[in-house]
Amino acid sequence: MKFRSTELVGDDTIGLYAYENDLLMQGEIACIGMIVVGVWKLLEYTHDAGCDAKMQTVSYSYNVSIRGMNNVFRYDNQHAEWLYPRHQDEHHRHAFDWQTGDEFRDSPES
């Protein structure tokens, strides 16, 4: 993997877990500079055919933070029940001040 060979990406704890009738991908990816990418991704079976099963992402959250500090940004679609003003769909990006943990005033953005 290119990112590992350039030492941008270190160890990860990503795993796949049974979640009701679907799969949950969850864990963290350690990167240089104490950067951590948290992954939470729900995958739904759209066609179950053994080894040829097809899956579709239903819900996700990719959170980037500084280890021991605060969030930097997060991409997610976990607010499907209500949309933020100016959003056309539930996919959006939250941005934070990593030093204070406060979400920026114009966040989230689509």
Task: Describe it.
- By secondary structure, this protein is mainly β.
- It has one domain (2-95).
- 4% of the residues lie in helices and 50% in strands.
- The chain has 1 helix and 7 strands, in the order H-E-E-E-E-E-E-E.
- The chain has one helix at 2-5; strands at 9-12, 15-19, 22-31, 35-47, 54-66, 71-76, 92-95.
- Strands 1, 2, 3, 4, 5, 6 and 7 form a 7-stranded antiparallel beta sheet that branches.
- The longest helix is centred in the first third of the chain and has 4 residues, at 2-5.
- It starts with a helix and ends in a 15-residue tail after the last strand.
Furnish the topology, listing elements before pairings:
Elements: H1 2-5, E1 9-12, E2 15-19, E3 22-31, E4 35-47, E5 54-66, E6 71-76, E7 92-95
Antiparallel strand pairs: 1-3, 2-3, 3-4, 4-5, 5-6, 6-7
- The average pLDDT value, as a whole number, equals 84
Quaternary state reads single chain
Shape: flat
Q: Termini, distance in Å? A: 30 Å
The gyration radius over C-alpha positions equals 16 Å
- The structure class reads mainly beta
Largest sheet report: 7 strands, antiparallel
Q: What is the count of β-strands?
A: 7
Give the helix proportion (percent range). Answer: under 10%
What's this, in brief?
With 110 residues, this protein is mainly beta. The protein has one helix spanning 2-5, and strands at 9-12, 15-19, 22-31, 35-47, 54-66, 71-76, 92-95.
